[in-house]
Please model this.
Amino acid sequence: MPAKEQRFFFLIQTAAHRLKMRADAEMLAAGGLTTSQAAVMAIVCAEGRVSQREIASRLKQRESAVGAMAERLLKAGYITRTRSASDKRAWTLAPTRAGRRAFDAMGAAFAGINALIDEAFPGTDIDRAAKGLRRLIGLLEAEGE
Model:
């Protein structure tokens, strides 16, 4: 059945919105981070030190958006921010102990979200859905070039 008859765009949009709301609520309760902040923290914790520009590039976000998230993470005591040694215009972010603890607490909260997705897409359904979404993302990225 075609996407139009399934109202597929609406279904994807609604599911994504509700899933993000649920994930944000569970992650805030577990460690005080939203999913967007956790994405930044994942990169910062993995790298130890990383520029805001690099984070923006990896997340396909504007550097100003990452800067705003970094500001909230800095106020929460989860990261430190220093001028880059190689580029005085750039900022380098590093995790604090509290930031690593908050990020580690995200694992259990996100496991619940993944379990919900696995329940909705049993067996190989998840593989087919992921493959289709990756293909859609690729088509959209190719059009943007």
